[in-house]
Amino acid sequence: MALMTSLLCFFGACSETGVESDAQSPYTIHATIDNASRTTLGEATDNGYKTSWVAGDMIGVYGAGVSNKMFTTSQSGSSVDFSGTGALAAGAYVAYYPYMATTQFAEGKLSIELPTEQLYPGADYLLEYAPMAAYSKDGKNFSFKNLCGLVRLQLLGSATIEKITFEALDGDFVSGTMQAEVSESGVVTTLSEGASTVALTGLSAALSPRRVTSFYLAVPEGDYKGIKFVIQDAERNTMTLQASDFTLSVRRSVMSSIAAVTYAANGRVYEVGDLYENGTVKGIVYEVDATGQHGKIVSLDEYQGYYGYGTSNYLDNCTSYTDGLYNKAQLWASGATYSSYYPMPHRSSVWYIPALDELHVLARVAPQLNTAMVANGGVQFTLTGDWDSGYTSSTLTSLPTSSTKMMGAVLFEKPDTGANYAVTSAQIRCRTITTF
């Protein structure tokens, strides 16, 4: 299969009125896509998918006297003319596709961004973003080579697929800044910074139980030791396919296919405000990671607890601002009990009192959680009032001269304020959280 290469024209053509100088006269270059390229757009043939540009595609050119000069084609096909203004002087040039104003060329290498999301543009194209580069010794003819390979995931089933995420479990980068060294002898690519995940988005693909539907992701060349796909449907259910002991070999201009599987949801993607329920653990999601499969929930219940605890040594090691689980462990290690501290979850419980930074995150989204709280039988957050209406954290933040140890707290009306303190006898609100 050949690597797909279609990017809609993001930049309108510009022209100038008046007398044109020789430097601004129209100039045309010819570009072809290497016949060895086997991963692109176009109709399927016996040898794979025919590679082609479409009208409106743009390339950038670096070389003698020009820096990221843009050329545009009005043709479609794998061998087309690109037009610009101002002739290219005799000499060697490097070109790349698709054109981006931010693409850099230094020390003989192009710096090309591989996005973390590859937009699926519709049934007419297999893939929107698949970069190529070319070398020309005369500034007139450019033969483009793909910089990535193609990974094909094949699905059967009855769901409507909205997003597919690919992850390299060995941590190799599959998105980020690619360095491409282009010469007459070929292309050498490296990816020294970035992320180990890339997602295909913009989907609304209805699967068939009898006919395979293929999905394509452009991935840098490499041997990926351990791979994972997370497939999300329109109902935000997910299916995870993982092969930790499998090596996926991806080569430039070559398609690597994953055997067809039937979509069967085995997980779910969550958003802030969703109800999470798993056995006895039930709460409202208030934070999620990039995958939507992991995050934190807050309990439906609310407690009243002492803001500080006198001169007791129970709190001495509850010093983490980021990890309430750490503070919980320190409390239990110190010998604290329920009666000696506000409602501290049992050591075997998954629930814990948030650290101060975790409490700030909760406070920022609390207003949008109240509707979900009520709908699911929970207690609404108190969003206004004085410090008696605040919420306490599990983080020790102050040791005044009176030796009264106090805990950091947040007034949800002002979620980004710094730590505040109250007297030992003040009983203010407390919510517990846990991870999923």
The tally of beta strands, per DSSP, is 31
Strand order of the largest sheet: 5-4-7-11-12-1-6
Question: How many discrete domains?
Answer: 2
Classification by helices and strands: mainly beta
The biggest beta sheet is recorded as: 7 strands, mixed
Features:
436 residues, elongated, 2 domains, 7-stranded mixed β-sheet, mainly beta, 7% helix
How would you characterize the overall build of this protein?
This protein is mostly beta strands. The chain has two domains: 246 residues, no CATH class; 161 residues, no CATH class. The strands form eight sheets. Strands 5-4-7-11-12-1-6 form a seven-stranded mixed beta sheet, with no helix packed on it. Strands 10, 14, 17, 18, 20, 21 and 23 form a seven-stranded mixed beta sheet that branches. Strand 24 and strand 25 form a beta hairpin. The longest helix is centred in the C-terminal third of the chain and has 20 residues. It is elongated and about 80 Å long. The protein starts with 25 loop residues before the first strand and ends with a strand. The N terminus is likely disordered.
